[in-house]
Automatic annotation (TrEMBL):
CDD domains: DEXHc_Snf (cd17919), SF2_C_SNF (cd18793). Residues 310-469 form the Helicase ATP-binding domain. The keyword Disulfide bond does not apply. The lineage of its organism: Bacteria, Bacillati, Actinomycetota, Actinomycetes, Kitasatosporales. This is Helicase conserved C-terminal domain-containing protein. One of its GO terms (molecular function) is ATP binding. PANTHER family: SNF2/RAD54 HELICASE FAMILY. Signal peptide: none annotated.
Length: 735
């Protein structure tokens, strides 16, 4: 008891702690939050366990198939050659799978095989099986729809995918809430009743009162951070009824990349560490792995190699990420920006070609909680003022950067330069503008899909912007020695991973929307089509003037990047005249186009010639003609010139490349124009129910004749034309 006979007051420098009824009210709030956290943890663990349960038979089947291809002679590698494998092979045990399935008694029936040899052989087979199981990847494609085991896995994954990208953050937050509050509630317990507090002794009272104050502080922090809402939403999303099999498969086909990220994480495949870390020296990779990565402002899950890339940018500060196309360089950059925002940085700047400016803005706002401002075009001045005042991510073009006027006292947390090979020539205005901005910040991230080991002098010029002291050490001989030797030599400033090195798991298919803005010529053609009420002309207005087409500019860039990486490309459009425009800008060396007017035998000859072409090649095809009956698995990059009225037609065309026999991961790029018929179509067709209806309830006519026009297409066209005429304040006949 204190000298004054009371129950103990807080020290004079500390605020009074609630006791009795007030303390119990605090405990009740904390207990409710802990209960919510424990529910989220349990629901999340249950959903992940369902995936692991569904995955197990598929992985076991894959392991069996792998072991069937491993000859029994490989057992020598494990037993140091002590087994008489020739006798076992002659007796029919010609694969590791057969030895694994045998009993010791069975093997002892083989002449010359005793009990010890039989046991050693089975133990060696188990050791190989364990190694295979550690690395084997389960692949699922649309062709697996009839497989009940594959369907069970897709349905289990669907729950977590549709719960959204906030669920991992909610699970982490739930674990932290429980870890913080549970022990504090136990310590604070005496404060719930004055008598208990009285008999707790001076130290016990002090601990209890300190714990109550800490609980109050934590509750205030979590309330301010929106933790109760985050946990409530996560529980609601995780407890939704399981999707129907057909609906889950449709969602899988639309969002294969998200399913793949989740499956790779839950499967816990042992990655090729060296490859996923770009063959960096140990000293660099250890520093990168030690770098924390805050996800508070991020709204997308990362693959392991993507998280490493974001950490590399943060730990090394001034670098080039040169991952092969399709590996998510944009997402890695956004993850780094989100981390820096959590650390207190306020202003960031992204410089990119005009063709991807809209895409960058959309990706930033959909993949993070950061605001994006387009510092380009007619509203550039207003956007610049808002960005300067409020912070966020300014997105500008190389040309606009030259005259971008930002006060020197605006702090720049990071500069990101996309398609950084655009500044390979130090004498150009754009390179000089980038150099000025790199001098304004400690953190600079260059992105390029061009393999720098093929362009050593260009790489030296890029590194001059970043780490000038490294330039004298960049030698042509390192590149000649091979890509791995080159990457190790330039490790402080360069990280590159290839698809075949890191994408060992589902999906083989990754899709991205490439958002552009109309050029002035495009917009004039579009307004005329809208005024005329011509739906089909609206859909292809972005190609009306090929020399000034924003979509064609982006298409050229995608094809150029594919060429740098020696990848084959197939370009699909519904319209023949669009394919003619594509051919005009790409040149006569492209294959095709495949159209409905080309006889079937000639179509196959064109596809065969495309497949046989060494290295990079481009094939043009009408989506109706290329979407049925032809296999285009030589292509690993698919470009869709416009969205299709029927999602099945689009999926069918993609399936020509993404199918059995495809040896590379397939990257699909859909070219879209913001605030146009493209966006209206996606808004209408983008809901899951409409997609499901279009997929599962299509008519026999539509199935047998993919280009048939059904009533839903006519109603869709009327709705979109009317909406666009209203939005643009146009009436029929008005240009």
């Amino acid at each position: 008891m204190d000298r004054d006979g009371g129950v103990g007051l807080a020290e004079p420098w500390a605020r009074p702690a609630p006791v009795g009824r007030q303390a119990r009210a605090v405990f009740d709030r904390a207990a409710k939050l802990v209960a919510m956290a424990e529910a989220v943890t349990a629901d999340h663990a249950r959903a992940r366990a369902e995936v692991r349960t569904a995955l197990a038979p598929l992985r076991q089947a894959r392991v069996r198939r792998e072991l069937e291809t491993i000859p029994v002679t490989r057992l020598k590698d494990v037993t140091e050659g002590r087994l008489r494998l020739g006798a076992m092979e002659l007796a029919g045990y010609d694969s590791v799978a057969k030895v694994l399935a045998a009993r010791s008694y069975d093997l002892r029936q083989v002449p010359g095989i005793g009990a010890q040899s039989a046991d050693q052989a089975i133990a060696a087979a188990r050791q190989i099986a364990a190694a295979v199981e550690e690395h084997v990847a389960v692949r699922i494609g649309a062709e697996d729809r009839a497989d009940p085991a594959a369907t069970a896995l897709v349905v289990a994954l669907n729950r977590l995918v549709n719960a959204g990208p906030e669920v991992p953050r909610a699970a982490d937050t739930a674990a932290r809430v429980a870890a913080e509050l549970t022990p504090l509630l136990a310590e604070a317990h005496p404060a719930g009743a004055r008598l208990r507090l009285l008999v707790a002794g001076r130290r016990g009272r002090q601990r209890a009162q300190d714990a109550v104050r800490r609980i109050e502080d934590l509750l205030a922090e979590h309330t301010a951070d929106g933790t109760p809402l985050l946990l409530t939403q996560a529980s609601t999303d995780l407890l939704r009824p399981a999707a129907r099999a057909d609906e889950a498969w449709l969602d899988f086909e639309v969002r294969a990349a998200e399913y793949g990220v989740l499956l790779a994480e839950i499967a816990e495949l042992a990655p090729d560490i060296d490859a996923s870390e770009g063959f960096l020296p140990t000293s660099v990779s250890e520093r990168v792995r030690a770098q924390q990565l805050d996800d508070t402002h991020r709204r997308v899950s990362l693959r392991g190699y993507q998280a490493f890339g974001a950490r590399f940018a943060l730990a090394q500060k001034r670098v080039v990420i040169g991952d092969e196309m399709g590996l998510g360089k944009t997402i890695q950059a956004i993850a780094a920006l989100a981390h820096l925002r959590a650390e207190g940085s306020s202003h960031f700047l992204v410089v990119c070609p005009a063709s991807v400016l809209v895409n960058w803005s959309r990706e930033i706002e959909s993949r993070s909680a950061l605001d994006a401002y387009r510092l380009h075009g007619n509203h550039r001045g207003a956007a610049l003022r808002e960005w300067t005042r409020d912070g966020g991510v300014g997105v500008t073009t190389f040309d606009a950067l030259v005259s971008l006027d930002v006060p020197d006292d605006v702090p720049l947390g990071m500069l990101v330069v996309d398609e950084a090979h655009y500044v390979k020539n130090p004498d150009t205005r754009r390179s000089q503008a980038v150099a000025r901005w790199t001098a304004r910040t400690d953190r600079v991230l260059f992105l390029t899909g061009t393999p720098m080991e093929n362009h050593v002098e260009e790489f030296r010029n890029l590194v001059q912007h970043l780490q000038p002291g490294l330039v004298p050490h960049i030698r042509q001989s390192d590149a000649v020695a091979g890509s791995q030797a080159f990457r190790r030599a330039v490790a402080p400033a360069y990280l590159r991973r290839n698809q075949q090195d890191v994408l060992t798991e589902l999906p083989e298919l990754a899709q991205s929307d490439e958002w552009e803005e109309f050029s002035r010529a495009d917009l004039a053609a579009y307004r005329s089509a809208v005024a005329a009420g011509n739906f089909m002309a609206m859909r292809r207005a972005a190609y009306a003037v090929p020399a000034r087409s924003a979509k064609l500019q982006r298409l050229r860039e995608l094809v150029a990047e594919a060429a740098e990486n020696d990848l084959k490309v197939v370009v699909f459009s519904f319209f023949r005249d669009v394919l003619s425009s594509v051919r005009l800008v790409l040149g006569p060396s492209v294959h095709g186009p495949l159209t409905g007017a080309v006889p079937a035998t000639e179509r196959q000859r064109i596809v065969d010639a495309f497949a046989a072409a060494p290295g990079h090649a481009v094939l043009l095809s009408q989506i109706q003609a290329g979407g049925t009956g032809l296999n285009m698995q030589a292509a690993s990059v698919v470009i869709l010139c416009e969205p299709q009225v029927k999602p099945t037609l689009e999926a069918q065309a993609i399936g020509r490349a993404h199918r059995m026999g495809q040896i590379r991961h397939v990257r699909v790029h859909r070219l879209l124009i913001a605030d146009s018929v493209d966006q209206r179509m996606l808004d209408i067709l983008g809901t899951k129910q409409v997609l499901f209806d279009a997929y599962a309830r299509r008519s026999d006519l539509a199935e047998s004749t993919p280009d048939a026009v059904d009533i839903s297409e006519q109603s869709l066209a009327r709705q979109i034309v009317a909406e666009e005429q209203t939005r643009l304040s146009l009436t029929k006949g008005e240009g």
